[in-house]
Structures are given as C-alpha cells and as structure tokens.
Amino acid sequence: MDPLHAVWSSPALREALRCQDFGPVVRALRLARGLTLDELGRRCNYSGSRLSRYERGRPPLTDVRLLRALAAALEVSPEVFGLLPVPDANVPPPDRKGKVPPRAHGPTVNPAPHRNRDEEEPVRRRELLATAGLAGAVALGLPRRALAAPADLTDVLYGSPPDAAPVPLATLRNATGRARDHFEAARYDDLSRGLPALLAAAAATRDHADGPARERANALVADAYLAASALMVKINDDQLAWAAADRAVQAAAASDDPLTLADARRAVATVLRRTGRPARARELLLTAARDIEPDGRAAPEQLSVYGSLLQVAAYTAAVDGDRHSAHEYIAEAAGTAARLGRDANLRHTAFGPANVAIYQVSIAQVLGDSGTAIEHARALRHVALPTRERRGRLGVDVARAYHQWGRYEDCYRTLRSVERIAPAEVRYRPPVRRMVEDLLRFERRGSLPGLRAFADRVGVLA
What we know:
- The protein is an all-alpha fold and about 450 residues long.
- It contains 23 helices and no strands.
- The longest helix is centred in the middle third of the chain and has 24 residues, at about 210-235.
- The model is unreliable at about 85-120 (pLDDT under 50).
C-alpha cells in the first residue's frame, strides 16, 4: 500500500492544503515516507535545519523552485503544492533510490509558454488591460486619427489588427519614448491605456515606410513591443509578454540595430525564465551579450545594453540555483558599470552601478540569502536610483527578503514605503499580494497597524 494513503484522509492535512500552508504538508508527507529532515534535505540540496524552519512556517514555504524539488523528492504531483503538472527540466524526478539527479544546464526545447497559475490574479489584470480608446492615443502624443476605434492589447496581438493611420517617424519616436517613460515612472495604468494605439500606429507607420525609413520604423516598433512585454511581465501575464517579446525580436531583426535586437532577446529570455526554462534563457542572454561584446572604444549605449544582459543572466542563474554563475555574471556586470562610470538610463536600461546593486539584492533574495540581500539594499540607502520603477522593484525585493527571513514587521514597513514611491508596484504585482496574505495570517493583536486597509488597497481583501 502507498505509505501516503492514510495521510490524505487527515483533516489537518486537508485544512493545510486548503489554506496553502505547505510547511505542515511537507512534514506530513516526509514522515509518511519515513524520511528525516536531513535525508529530505539531501534530496533537495537544502539543509535539514532550513527545511525544519519551512515546515514550521517560519518563513512560509512559497519558493516555487523548492516546492517543485520537494514534490519530486516526496514523489507527489506538483499539483499538491498548487503548481502546474508539467515536466520541469530543472527539477527531474527522483531515481529508484529517491535521489534527485543534478540539474542539466544544456539547451532545452522551447515550447509555447504555460501560464504561471500559482501567481495568477486575473481580476486586477483585466482591470489594467481594459479597452482603451482615443484618450490612450492622445496621452502618448499620437493624433486622434492614429486609432480609428477602441481596442485592447489582445486585439492588437491576437485579433484582427485595428484600423490605424501611419504617423511621422518623429511622432512615433516621441510616443514610444513616452510609453517607456510611463513604465519607468511605474505609471502602469497610463501605459496600458496607450499601448493598443501605439502598437497599431507603429505597425501602420512601418508598413507604409520604405528603405532606411522602414528600418528606423522597425526599431521603433520593437521599442513599443518591448514596453508592452515589460508591462505584461509586471502584471504576470506571461502569454502576452511572450507574444510582445517575440514581435519585438522580429521587428528588431529587421531594423539592422544590434542593440535593439539584443534588448529584444533579453525580453524573450525573461519570459523563458518565468515559464520554467532558465537554462535556455541564460543561453540566449549570453549569446546576445557575445554578439555585442564591447571593445575598448565601446559607446556608453553599448556598455549599458551589454551590462543589462549580464545582470539579467546573473539573476536567471540564481533562479536556476547556480550560485557560482550568478556571482560570476553579476561581477562582470559590475565591471561594465564601472567602465560606464555613472548611473544612466541609456536605451531605457537604467544600467549603472546602482542598478547592479539592485540586482545583487534580487540575486541574494532568490538564493535565500536574506541577510545579504538586506546588506546590499542598505548600501543603496542614500543613492539616487535612476527610475521610480527601479526604486519600487528594489523595495519589493527587500520586502521579500524580510518575508523570507520571517521579519514580518520589516516586510510590512517596506511594502508601505513602496506604496508611497510607486503605488502600482504594490497594486498589480502578485508577489506583493502573496506577502500580504501571509501578513494577515501572522499578525497578532494589531502588531501591523493599518494592515487590513493596506490589504484592501492592494486587492487582497477585495
């Protein structure tokens, strides 16, 4: 008989599954398998003491990669932990002795992306992607005739292309610049309203252009789709992010602009990482970096795009659990930032020494080094970061580190500060809602004043 047969009928286990409180679930399954903490830890490359803290819910067990590894080691479906039941190239099934083989880092097949169901929040997403009309076009500086009828982003990417009129290249350049400015200022509502008109006008302008003007138009089309992909990543719509990134690559390839193409490949790699293919994402990032590797006379824009690729590769390696490569790539990115010599926002990369430090926070957090993440963040306390979006991202990652560490008051205080800096970062990002759900569970006797009102503002209590 399966040793887990009796476990599934336990009322306590069923309640833990209903609340997605996975620490007690792991403990019950581990004991049913007759495993010690150290034995389970060896299967997952985690220490027994750390798994013990996870089993006690300090911090809550929310790391997707660890949950997949635990599912494999405990020989249960990932669905037990609310994950999609798809093969994960990075956490293979255990062998006959119950050991999880080492991860392979070679190329992987690149199927269409699946939706990240454990992070999905469709109500807020539909709210942000509501149909936009002429007001959205005008907000980006496009003429009213640019879009003949209201449309939404799905219409532009998948439906019948809306009727749109071409615009002068200078007008299109200004509009794409405003779209990227909206993203960098964390004005996601404004960006969403203007995107359908921008993408439709960009395509119409490109289709009516010839010769060098068509190449310049393609570069602007790629820029517009990059803004769309970045927004979809923020709100966790991997399917639309994938479609927009793919369109960006196609347009960039036709633009004869190697830096635009490198940036578009970075956007594709981001979706690859988010949809469970970090090894393939890293390969794409490193290839793109080699293609634009700067020499001693490199222009600042080239250094910015190159360094941006390296820091994203470092974060991708961290997500894949490759600590050595993560540190190697971020060190090279830091060297590139030192060559650049300042924090800039060339090519909308926000690249520079401070942005490398922001990625060091993210890398330490995803590797579980919460204290290191906080130390990196403290070094940025008096540094002027290049964009509001970067400040918001840093704050969310610091909150995640505190949450992972079990320091819930610091987590809540940090989230409140992010709300003041960039309200849309807490309103639309799924990791924030997960943290707030945990804060509501662990709050004791009003220890986090204003938490329920804050939860209502970010949509947890709606």
